[in-house]
Design goal:
The radius of gyration is 24 Å and the shape is elongated. The strands form two sheets. Strands 2-3-1-4-8-7-5-6 form an eight-stranded mixed beta sheet. It contains ten helices and 15 strands. Strand 2 and strand 3 form a beta hairpin. With 440 residues, the protein is α/β, with parallel strands linked by helices. The termini are far apart.
């Protein structure tokens, strides 16, 4: 097993392969190492997801910043279709040591690019680095492009063009201190783009983060999991992701992928259509309810339209209501929320200032919560409401506020570190029992 240096969280690209050491045959694109980058901290859940999608025989290994899978074309298609947690599916085509841009050119020349695209198709190269000695990532990417074009010209007599917006072949170069890896991006647009979001709402939560929250709490839409409520749903991302899980809807069922335009997959498109048809046939009615809503009529309506496009409007009960007043929709269930900003945490009719915590931004000192003097008052009132009306429920709150249990005057039973983009957050669990669980 060969290895490359590990970058800081959030850096893109494979850093380690799980193949046996030795050069990969450049004439074959049927089997290889797939790398699925993900948010820092979600690697174990992604590894479990990959194993579930591919079966117990699949070789899956969690690394830092992503998961490595030994597989071929079928595995690549299945992961694109079914992964909720991965950011992309990358196919590593070359890796090795380097000291300068000439080494990168030689690395890329080892690949038979005419097996991936025709000269009439287009390409783009994206580069990332962690402690690389090279001064210019743009020049490094340019040398990779030159190698692809030179190899294609020699093999086909023509070279492909560059398209920085909608390329047929998107390459990802990652540079460590002395090791480089080059991969084909099989996804195209990032996998959090499920295909149903028409326009972004207010500070939208990424679908992959919502899926990570659901994975962290172990909610899979089974009868034993109970219903799920997001009382501050915003654009509806958490509720929609939960409803799709409850209905067995594959996350990639409504979108297209870059691999569909690549030569190795052309004779697999029949199998791809069958895979999608099987996924469509597996959709079923939900076994548990999903409830959602927002204090803002506008946001509740926006979330409802998103749910309709996602095919789960029937599976979510939306209600415009103040989270500080909304009664429990059942005698037990799971509360899952990422507290939002501004007017969305305000009781209806309130006309005071804006502010708040959540959706990737830490609350600043002095920010105003509508309907409450500050964050402390808002969370204290929320906890009191939950203790009074949600006994028997389990509440989970994602926030960058490390002192949330103190603000809520509750003792958390679990805290899960989680990253919302570059912001370090925690997912706190509170077990609601009337008149108990007070923070000492």
């Amino acid at each position: 097993m060969s290895s490359t240096p590990t970058p800081a969280p959030g850096a893109a690209g494979p850093r380690r392969v799980v193949r046996a050491a030795g050069p990969r045959p450049t004439s074959s694109v049927r089997q290889g190492t797939l790398f699925l980058p993900c948010a820092a901290g979600t690697e174990p859940w992604l590894a479990e997801e990959c194993q579930a999608l591919l079966g117990p025989q699949a070789r899956v290994e969690a690394g830092r910043g992503g998961v490595y899978v030994e597989g071929g074309l079928a595995e690549a298609m299945r992961l694109n279709l079914g992964s909720r947690l991965a950011q992309r599916v990358l196919w590593q085509v070359a890796e090795g040591g380097y000291t300068n841009e000439h080494d990168l050119y030689a690395l890329a020349r080892r690949v038979r690019w005419n097996e991936w695209i025709t000269p009439q198709q287009t390409l783009r190269v994206d580069a990332s680095a962690w402690r690389s000695p090279l001064q210019s990532l743009n020049f490094a990417a340019l040398r990779i492009k030159d190698a692809v074009c030179d190899q294609m010209r020699e093999a086909c007599g023509e070279r492909p063009s560059v398209d920085t917006h909608h390329p047929d072949l998107s390459l990802v170069l990652h540079l460590g201190p002395n090791h480089a890896s080059l991969s084909v991006d099989l996804s195209g647009e990032a996998l959090f783009k499920r295909g149903w979001r028409e326009a972004k709402g207010e500070a939208p939560l990424k679908e992959t983060l919502a899926a990570a929250m659901l994975a962290a709490i172990g909610w899979q839409g089974r009868p034993e999991d109970g219903g799920l409520l997001d009382p501050c749903c915003g654009a509806g991302t958490i509720a929609i992701e939960a409803a799709q899980i409850a209905c067995g809807i594959a996350p990639g069922l409504q979108r297209r992928f870059a691999f569909e335009r690549l030569l190795p997959f052309r004779d697999q498109l029949g199998a791809w259509r069958e895979m999608k048809a099987a996924a469509q046939a597996a959709v079923h009615a939900p076994s548990v309810p999903v409830w959602a809503g927002d204090v803002s009529f506008r946001m509740t309506d926006f979330a409802t339209r998103n749910a309709e496009r996602a095919g789960v409007k029937h599976a979510i009960e939306f209600k415009t209501a103040d989270a500080l007043q909304r009664p429990a929709p059942a005698d037990h269930g799971v509360l899952l929320m990422n507290p939002p900003y501004g007017e969305r945490i305000a009781p209806k009719g309130s006309g005071q200032g804006q502010g708040g915590l959540g959706h990737g931004r830490a609350g600043a000192q002095g920010e105003k919560f509508e309907g409450a003097a500050d964050a402390g008052e808002f969370y204290a009132r929320l906890a009191a409401h939950w203790k009074k009306g949600y006994a028997g429920w389990t509440a989970w709150v994602l926030t960058p506020e490390a002192k949330l249990p103190s603000l809520m005057r509750l003792k958390e039973s679990r805290r899960v570190p989680m990253w919302n983009g570059p912001i370090e957050c925690r997912l706190f669990r509170f077990d609601m029992v009337a008149g108990s669980a007070r923070h000492s």
